[in-house]
Specification:
Radius of gyration: 16 Å
Strand content: under 5%
Order of helices and strands: HHHH
Structural class: mainly alpha
Length: about 90
């Protein structure tokens, strides 16, 4: 019985972890969109929230924000150089 309970709890934790990762992917898309739309201050605030979630809640390393990945060039060109973030 103990193994079955452990498996159920592990499956539930895996589902929550996957949901959190999916939500972070959506947040990443939003950050990239706002950065490309020249809403840098909003994108930066969301990026800080994303970093906090990754580090403190998911115990994962922080990832660079859109501006850090492109050196700020995405805002200048109006697009994103990271193809992973394309819509």
């Amino acid at each position: 019985m103990c193994d079955e309970q452990y498996r159920k709890l592990k499956d539930e934790a895996d589902r929550y972890r996957q949901a959190a990762q999916d939500a972070l992917e959506q947040l990443d898309w939003c950050i990239g969109y706002l950065h490309g739309a020249h809403k840098g201050s909003i994108a930066a605030a969301l990026g800080r929230n994303r970093t906090y979630i990754r580090q403190h809640l998911l115990k994962m390393p922080a990832e660079p924000t859109v501006g850090e990945q492109t050196g700020g060039k995405a805002e200048q060109t109006g697009g994103r150089s990271d193809s992973k973030r394309s819509a």
